[in-house]
Design brief:
About 55% of the residues lie in helices and about 10% in strands. A five-stranded parallel sheet has the order 3-2-4-1-5, sandwiched between helices. Strands 6-7-10-8-9 form a five-stranded mixed sheet, with helices on one face. The termini are far apart. It has five domains: about 120 residues, Cobalt-precorrin-4 Transmethylase, domain 1, CATH 3.40.1010.10; about 100 residues, Methyltransferase, Cobalt-precorrin-4 Transmethylase, Domain 2; about 80 residues, MazG-like (Helix Hairpins, Orthogonal Bundle), CATH 1.10.287.1080; about 70 residues, MazG-like (Helix Hairpins), CATH 1.10.287; about 45 residues, no CATH class. It has about 500 residues and is an alpha/beta fold. The protein is elongated and about 115 Å long. One of its GO terms (biological process) is TTP catabolic process. Keywords: Hydrolase.
Length: about 500
């Protein structure tokens, strides 16, 4: 005979809200198990002569809810194996915030047990009735025991169930305060549809001060303004508002991808500066400024029907997953070197797929807008990858000497065009030297610039009011050496 568990809901409160089907199943004579007997309907079940076993004793023994629910499910499976057919009753509707039911639906078929769900009135129905709220324009239902700030969406009403104690209410309040002001209006509903129903609206900051919170309590969060959106969505709203032809900002409305280009570069460099300064507050601010440029460029593109921000985010997410198969289900890689090789191989496959039948150069995908030193390093790295490189360091040094001599000759002949050409060659070979030693030429130049500025400013401070133009060369030299000792 097939083993079967009938899972029924006791509804939100009074027995009058039980379905006829559920009442018949409870009174049919099969063993009845309650997740908890702490429910308004249970007293009436006893009056009807319904015998039951509850799992309330397990609540005192289990170290946490995950283990508690798993233990309940194991006992139910053991009982149905012994009895053949049983009834498992839970508060409300079996499919609303009932973890044991979800576990049963997973484990039952694995054990050859049929798990049959029987619908019921849920707490959501009676809470909405108590509030006089219409969910037709959207409603989010959340579980207080697993609530995270990133689940919240204040574009529509939200119900938080299982606010069964002031402690849980306090934890929920702290989570909500990540997104809301302390004065944000919320509503608590207790024992909806019961004779002792309570409904109270209050500021969020007072949520855990309510003394009558118990296992029948639900929290209602009304929809809010744009400032209650998740931070990234809030920024999207702000940028869209700035670009709105009706009441937007005249300056933002005039911008396009090209006019905003310089700000992308400026903000990226300011991020780098904050990183170099090891200033987390500045880095946080500068990353925000750079993020604004991403949102602005995406909004401009959306306004021109080119693409939208979600496509930007989805594209990079899919690219990261594709290039990290060792993380997302592929073969495991053990070392950073293996990861880097795989990354380069996958990039090459992507490039080949884009090219189709057209043969691509090793240097076909270089971003021309890169800073010159960075671009030179990237060129050197790419051609070295296919073998165009000096086998030993002495070859690199000899090439630097050769280009330097050619620069000297151009200078001696006073040929500006040749000097310009040879100077670039010297720079390129020096970048190649940096690559050999795995050094970033941009970082090296940036640090040299910063070092020069520190020393020069130290010299200015040492002048004690004298004009820089008054100094003789020998004095400059003395001050420079003093500055080197003082500031490095």
């Amino acid at each position: 005979m097939t083993q079967k568990i009938d899972v029924v809901g006791l509804g939100p409160g009074p027995a009058r809200l039980l379905t006829l089907e559920t009442r018949d199943l409870l009174m049919a004579g099969n063993p009845v198990y309650l997740r908890t007997a702490v429910h308004p309907t249970v007293a009436e079940l006893r009056e009807w002569g319904c015998a039951y076993t509850s799992f309330d004793s397990l609540y005192e023994q289990a170290p946490d809810f995950d283990k508690l629910y798993a233990q309940i499910v194991e006992q139910l499976l053991a009982e149905v194996e012994a009895q053949g057919r049983i009834v498992y009753a839970v508060p409300g509707n079996p499919l609303v915030a009932e973890r044991t039911v979800q576990l049963l639906l997973e484990r039952g078929p694995q054990e050859g047990v049929e798990v049959k769900l029987h619908t019921a009135v849920s707490c959501v129905d009676v809470v909405l009735e108590a509030l006089g709220a219409d969910p037709s324009e959207g409603l989010t239902i959340l579980d207080a025991l697993t609530l995270e700030a990133d689940q919240l969406d204040f574009r529509r009403p939200q119900l938080v169930t299982q606010i069964y104690s002031p402690t849980i209410a306090s934890e929920v309040k702290l989570t909500l305060l990540d997104r809301l002001e302390p004065e944000y209006p919320v509503t608590l509903v207790r024992a909806a549809s019961c004779a002792d129903q309570q409904v109270e609206s209050l500021p969020l900051e007072e949520l855990d001060r309510v003394t009558w919170i118990d296992h029948l309590t639900t929290l209602y969060l009304p929809p809010g303004g744009p400032e209650t959106l998740a931070p990234l969505e809030y920024l999207r709203w702000v940028v869209a508002r700035l670009r709105n032809p009706e009441g937007g900002c005249p300056w933002d409305l005039k911008q396009n991808a090209q006019t905003l280009r310089k700000y992308v570069l400026e903000e990226a460099y300011e991020v780098v500066e904050a990183i170099d300064q090891e200033d987390p507050d500045a880095l946080c601010e500068e990353l925000g400024d750079l993020l604004l440029q991403v949102y602005l460029q995406s909004q401009v593109a959306q306004d021109e029907d080119l693409f939208v921000l979600d496509e930007v985010a989805l594209g990079i997410a899919e690219k990261l997953i594709y290039r990290h198969p060792h993380v997302f289900g592929g073969p495991t890689l053990e070392t950073p070197e293996e990861v880097k090789r795989q990354w380069e191989d996958l990039k090459a496959l992507e490039k080949a797929a884009k090219a189709g039948d057209q043969k691509l150069s090793v240097l076909s995908d270089l971003p021309a807008a890169l800073p010159s030193l960075t671009l030179a390093e990237k060129i050197g790295r790419k051609v070295a990858h296919v073998g165009f490189d000096w086998p030993e360091l002495k070859g690199v040094l000899a090439k630097i000497e050769e280009e330097y001599q050619e620069l000297l000759e151009a200078c001696e002949q006073d040929e500006p065009e040749a000097i310009f050409h040879e100077l670039g060659d010297v720079f390129f070979t020096l970048v190649n030297l940096a690559r050999w030693f795995k050094l970033d030429p941009e970082d090296a130049m940036r640090q040299t610039n910063a070092r020069f500025v520190r020393r020069f400013q130290a010299m200015e401070a040492a002048l004690a009011g004298r004009s820089l133009k008054e100094l003789a060369l020998e004095e400059w030299d003395i001050l420079w050496n003093q500055a080197k000792e003082q500031v490095g």
